[in-house]
Amino acid sequence: MEKTVSELEQPIVDLEVDRSAVDKNTTTKYSRGRVHVHARAQMPEKQLFSFAEYEAKAAEYTGSSEYSYWKSVWRSFLKKRAAVGMFIIFLLLFLFTFVAAAIGKYDVFNLRIDNSLMFTSPNSEFWFGTDNLGRDYWSQVWHATRTSIILAVSVSFGQIFVGVVIGLVWGYVRKLDRFFTELYNLIDNIPVIIYMTLIALMIGKTTLVMGAAMIGFGWLGTARNIRNLVFMYRDREYNLASRCLGTSLWRILYRNILPYMVSVIILRLALAIPGTIAYETTLTYLGLMDISTPSLGILLRNARSYFLDYPYLLIFPAVIVSIITITFYLVGNAFSDACDPRNHV
Q1: For a tag site, which of 136, 140, 272, 306 has the least CB within 10 Å?
Q2: pLDDT tens column, 172-229
Q3: How big is the chain by its Cα radius of gyration, in Å?
Q4: Higher pLDDT, 303 or 340
């Protein structure tokens, strides 16, 4: 039995001797640091691994990122020169509404009716001519432009804000899906112009009332679109993990879901502004807006009866409405593409 044990132990000793010899030879062979792929299993540990020194400053530098989403959005937008040019045109147009009041010869709030100056064509005294009451048309057009832009931007922002909030809750909270669906169907199945007519007759035709009414009925499309998009991201793994960690509802909506919809929101906002101006023009044309505050819709409404004989009364406000519509359409599409993370390099 002892002999058997010694016989069994002898190969082990020999093996250990052989291994040490191999390690010695391998160390000598790879001392220069040459890498042999096929013999990597025989390389010593100090040849395969090396100690990585830690430097706090270098670790902080490599761990941080200089990427900024909004800087990338801005760089992508600036590459589209046509959209940038249209955006500059719109800004200049809006700023000129303030300059025009200063350089104009007549104050829009102190215009006097003069029948002897009725329908005066544009000249050096009246740069845009006069209307059917002999009042300066230049001051009216630029004041109406400023009023319409402010109204359109305010109403559009209100519609988008309400639509985004309702759409996020509608799409994420499953218990409220049926309620918002029925509310959407109730409002959408009846023409909005009927609601606007009832509000104008029962409450009033002031700009504030009609603006609030346009917000109250204009959020439907945005909310429906956002709700459908939320369905795509609601049950993603990171949202499930956030719910398991006890993250609040509004934080999940704001931090996890909303960033994926920035491009859609920007596009709808850009298209809502010219759409609001067109809708305000329609309401004014139908007599559902207060005509005491000049706007482009009111000027177009008043000019429809004199267009054939005095076309300048319709041309000036119509051209401005067209410029606003085209600029916002092009800028909105370009900025929406820039906000899409897939287009960032």
Answers
A1: 306
A2: 888 888 999 999 998 888 888 888 989 988 888 888 888 899 999 889 889 999 998 8
A3: 36
A4: 303
The whole-number average pLDDT for the span 271-293 is: 81
Give yes or no for a contact between 113 and 135, defined as CB atoms under 8 angstroms apart. Answer: yes
What's residue 18's pLDDT?
A: 47
SS3 130: strand
Please list, in sequence order, all residues whose beta carbon lies within 8 angstroms of the beta carbon of residue 156, skipping any fewer than 6 positions away: 269, 272, 273, 275, 276
How far lies 337's CA from each of 20, 46, 79, 154, 217, in Å? 66, 53, 11, 24, 27
**Residue 96: which residues within 8 A CB-CB, separation 6 or more?**
142
Closest CA to 286 of 269, 304, 273: 304
pLDDT of residue 5: 44
Count CA within 13 A, CB hemisphere, residue 23: 9
Tokens 């020999």 identify what position? 14
Q: How far apart are CA 268 and CA 265, in angstroms?
A: 5
Q: Which residues pair with 136 in a beta bridge?
A: 130
pLDDT, one tens digit per residue, over 34-81 is: 554 556 666 666 666 666 676 666 655 555 556 677 788 888 888 888
pLDDT at 3 > cutoff 50? no
The residues that bridge with 130 in the sheet, in sequence order, are 136
The amino acid at residue 246 is G
What's residue 45's pLDDT? 64
Please, which residues have CB within 8 angstroms of residue 159's CB and are 6 or more apart in sequence?
Answer: 214, 215, 218, 219, 222, 272, 276
Query: How crowded is residue 153: how many other Cβ atoms within 10 Å of its Cβ?
Result: 17
Question: Computed from CA positions of residues 182, 186, 188, 189, in that sequence, does the dihedral angle turn out positive or negative?
Answer: positive
Contact present, 116 and 84 (Cβ < 8 Å): no
Q: So what's the pLDDT on residue 1?
A: 46
| Dihedral (Cα; 229, 234, 238, 241), 10-degree rounding | 170
